[in-house]
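It is worth pausing here to work through a concrete case rather than discussing structure prediction in the abstract. The textbook approach is simple: state the sequence, then state the predicted structure, then interpret. We follow exactly that order.
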Amino acid sequence: MYEEFFELSHRPFPSVPSLVGYVETESHLEAIETLLRCVRRDEGVGTLISAPGLGKSTIALRLQEELETDFEVVRLNSGHCGSRRALLQAIAYELDLPCRGLEEGELRIQFAEYVERLESRRMMGIVILVDEANLLPIRLMEELRLLTNFASKDRSRVSVVLVGNMSLEERLASPYLMSFNQRVGARAYLQPLTTAEVANYVRQQIQLAGASQTIFDDSAIEAIAQRSQGVPRLVNQICDHSLLLAALGDETTLDADGIEEAWADLQRLPAPKRQIRTDNAHTTDSLIEFGSLEETKSESSAEFPSVVRFEERSQAEAEEEFTPEAAEEPEVELTFQNATNPFDEQFEKEEVVLDRFASLGDQEVRGIRRVVSPRNSEIAAFLVGSEKNLAEVEMVQPSYTNAEGMVVSRDFSTHSTGFSDLDDRDIIVIDANETKVEEPQHPKMPAPRRRTYRQLFSQLRRQHA
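Step two, the predicted structure:
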C-alpha cells in the first residue's frame, strides 16, 4: 500500500520470518556458529532458546540454508504433534516419502531404509530441525532421541536441533528427560537488539527496498528502539505501521512523533498531542490551569481565575521554618456524642456456678434444700465464727436427696447440743413417701418403723465402741 508512495521495491518490514534483507547481529551470529559446530562435529543435540520475537524462526531458516549442501534437512515448523505416528509422518512428508495410510512400525522401517541410502547419495546425514520444540510432549522427545541411535562407524546419521522459548529449558530439566538432557551438546541463546543494531537494521531494510531518501530520522530511530525494547518483531510492526500512517498523511519523513502515533495506534492508546501551545500562559513553569478543556465557560466558573501565578521566593525565605501564629481563641476540644464502650457488652445468658464451700446467702441459691447434722454444724460454726459468737453455717443438700419420694430430716441449729458418741439422733433417716407405690411385702413380716432403725444403729455402735 505504501510501497508506491515511498517508491519501494518491496515491503521492507515483513510480518513473517524471512531471509529477505536478513541482517546478522552479534547475538545471531554467535548462535548460528554454535549450532553449526554442534551438527557438523556430531556433538549431540543442539538447542536454541530465546524469548518470543527475537528471531528464532529466522535462525532456523539460516541453519537450513547453511546445512542443505551436506545434510538432508527436515524442518518441522511446529512441535505440536499428538503421537509418534504423527511425528514420523511429518518427517516422512519433509523427506518426500509416503506418509499416508502407514502404521507407526512401517513409517519407522521406511525411515531406517532412507538413512541407509544416504551413503550412496554422499550425504553426511539427516538434520531434524524442530521449531517451537517447547510444545513437544515427553514421549515425542524420547522418540527423537531414539532416532539419533542410527549411526555409522564414526558418527550418528541423525542430528536433532530444538528451537523454542524459555520453557524448553525447564522441560529439558525434567527427571523424565535425563537421558535426553545428557545428549544436549550445545545451547545457544538470543539477546535483544541494542540501539545501534536497531538503527542499522532499520536503515539497511530501507536501503534494500530501494528508498532514494532518508525516511526515518535519528529521533525516529531512537523512539523505535525505546518502544520495541530491541525485539525484532516489534521493530517490524512499528516501522511498518508508521510507514502506513505516513503514507495516509502524505508525510515523506518520519520523526519521533510519527513513531509515537504509530505505537499508540497499535496499542489502542489515546493519540499523543502533536501541537504544543506557545502562548503566554505556557512561557513559565510556575503556572497552574484550572477548569475543563472546553472553550465555553459556565457562569459558575467565571468568578474563579483560569491562571494562578506564584511569586518567586528567595532561597532564604524558602528555607525559613514555618512558625504558626498564636491563636487568640482557645483550642477546640472534640467530643464524640455517640461513643460507646467496647467492653460494656450485655450477654444474653450467664452461667451460674455453685460452689458448695462458698457462702449460700445469694438469691440464686437461697431456695436450695439443705441437710446438716448437729456435729457438722458445731464444727463449721467453730471454724467460721468464734467460741462466743458462733456463726450460722448451712451445708448444701446432697444430690441423692433431690430424688422423688425422699424425706430428709432438717436441723439448722448451730448451738452446742451435748450429744455423745452413742447418740444416734443426728443420723439421717430416709423413709419412703406415702405417694410412692410400694412393692408388696411378705404378709408375716410387718413394715419396719423408724424406732426399729434407731435401736438397730445404737446396738451397732455399742458393739464397735
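Step three, interpretation. The first helix runs from residue 3 to 6. The beta strands are 45-49, 71-76, 125-130, 158-164, 184-189, 287-289, 307-309, 406-407, 431-432.
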